[in-house]
Amino acid sequence: MKTRAAVATAAGKPLEIMEVDLDGPRDGEVLVEIKATGICHTDEFTLSGADPEGLFPAILGHEGAGVVVDVGRGVTSVKKGDHVIPLYTPECRQCPSCLSRKTNLCTAIRATQGQGVMPDGTSRFSIGKEKLHHYMGCSTFSNFTVLPEIAVAKVDPAAPFDKICYIGCGVTTGIGAVINTAKVEEGATTAVFGLGGIGLNVIQGLKLAGADMIIGVDVNNDKKKWGERFGMTHFVNPKEVGDVVPHLVNLTKRGADQIGGADYTFDCTGNVNVMRQALEACHRGWGQSIIIGVAGAGQEIATRPFQLVTGRVWKGTAFGGARGRTDVPKIVDWYMAGKIQIDPMITHTLKLEEINKGFDLMHEGKSIRSVVVY
Ligand code: NAD
Ligand code: 022
Ligand code: ZN
């Protein structure tokens, strides 16, 4: 079949809207009509050419929602007409990682996904004789895409595509980092570094978990009102306080011994210097710092071993530690029940033809999330 897509033809070039050829689903695969897709930082990271693993030409996009229109042989968990969210972290429930219950990083299709092809080693996308790469196993910048069955989550058909697409990455990552990775408890003292589309979802996750103190840290004062909207209790602009670590430690002093430091901190910037600040702003003995931000290729983090010897814990999270087929439908239900907010974070809704504008808005820091509606 033919489908309309935004094609990444080469690194550093704007996406080109064109018709591409799409082969139907093979064994264990599903054909999905994508109804809406968010634009996220990794799409930009790859398109810019900064991602050493980036492949071209490709169809980017990994934050979508749509409807199953066809299924290949052997598919049992979804059928035509089901509403689904594509998963860049699949859940096969059979590989050693899934069975371990200790990680969400399913390995069933990991190698081929990284090579931009389906699990059988081939691509479904082409323009004439030229093959196009899939991206993060999703390729949601195409009106129709093919996905492995284990990489789709079946969700409530009443949920609006133009909002729940964000659950395909940002919402689940932020809320999941709090619930699955940090396992934040009621009454906790917390700090969130970077109040973009991820940090704001961490804040709403912390509010859900019952954290007492939710400090937002951002170099942009415009983010104060954004943080407050989702439950932030304090705001700190590191540019205005000198050294941010002692400032935060002081702000979080409590108990008879008056030792400061947060129980949980979250890096949502991808800046390795901020990652160090987030770790060192943790409470001695038990403070945990969760790295969510993805740093540039080749970047390294540093701290003194003393920070860890005295009980601080550094952790990282991918897709908020969520097991996609199990957890994503629950988050959609939370949204439908009014337990979490999504609508105010979607600051721009665009047509596919305007997708490059979405990248510009992200670059200029003018959007929290832009969503393309097909
Ligand atoms: P964003 O650009 O919308 O937000 C980043 C925020 O950080 C901005 O508000 C910016 O002002 C602030 N900031 C920049 N420098 C700062 C500093 N020195 N101190 C404090 N704040 C600072 O980005 P986003 O969409 O929220 O994504 C954040 C990061 O999360 C990205 O690196 C993204 O790739 C990553 N991410 C990771 C996962 C995962 O599974 N681990 C999933 C999605 C996104
Ligand atoms: C999504 N991300 C950033 C913004 N939006 C993002 C990027 C990378 C990961 C998670 C989220 C990530 C963390 C750890 C891994 N990835 C490796 C997983 C593994 O090896 O099992 C990651 C993922 C997918 C891809 C590359 C890296 C890919 O499909 N190319 C989950
Ligand atoms: Zn993303």
What does this entry look like structurally?
- It is a single chain.
- With 374 residues, the protein is α/β, with parallel strands linked by helices.
- The chain has 2 domains: 2-168 and 342-373, Medium-chain alcohol dehydrogenases, catalytic domain (Quinone Oxidoreductase, Chain A, domain 1); 174-318, NAD(P)-binding Rossmann-like Domain (Rossmann fold), CATH 3.40.50.
- It is 26% helix and 23% strand.
- It contains 12 helices and 17 strands.
- It has helices at residues 41-48, 96-100, 110-114, 161-164, 170-182, 199-209, 223-230, 244-251, 272-280, 305-309, 324-336, 355-363, and strands spanning 2-7, 16-22, 29-39, 63-71, 83-86, 125-127, 130-131, 144-148, 152-155, 189-193, 213-217, 234-236, 264-267, 288-291, 313-316, 346-351, 369-373.
- Strands 3, 4, 5, 8, 9, 16 and 17 form a 7-stranded mixed β-sheet that branches.
- A hairpin with an 8-residue loop joins β1 and β2.
- α5 crosses α6.
- It starts with a strand and ends with a strand.
- The structure holds nicotinamide-adenine-dinucleotide (NAD), ligand 022 and zinc ion.
- Ligand 022 binds at residues 40-42, 88-89, 105, 110, 113-114, 136-137, 169, 294, 318-319.
Q: What topology does this entry show?
A:
Layout: E1 2-7, E2 16-22, E3 29-39, H1 41-48, E4 63-71, E5 83-86, H2 96-100, H3 110-114, E6 125-127, E7 130-131, E8 144-148, E9 152-155, H4 161-164, H5 170-182, E10 189-193, H6 199-209, E11 213-217, H7 223-230, E12 234-236, H8 244-251, E13 264-267, H9 272-280, E14 288-291, H10 305-309, E15 313-316, H11 324-336, E16 346-351, H12 355-363, E17 369-373
Parallel strand pairs: 10-11, 10-13, 11-12, 13-14, 14-15, 16-17
Antiparallel strand pairs: 1-2, 2-6, 3-4, 3-8, 3-17, 4-5, 5-9, 6-7
Helix pairs in contact: 5-6
Bound molecules: nicotinamide-adenine-dinucleotide, ligand 022 and zinc ion (ZN).
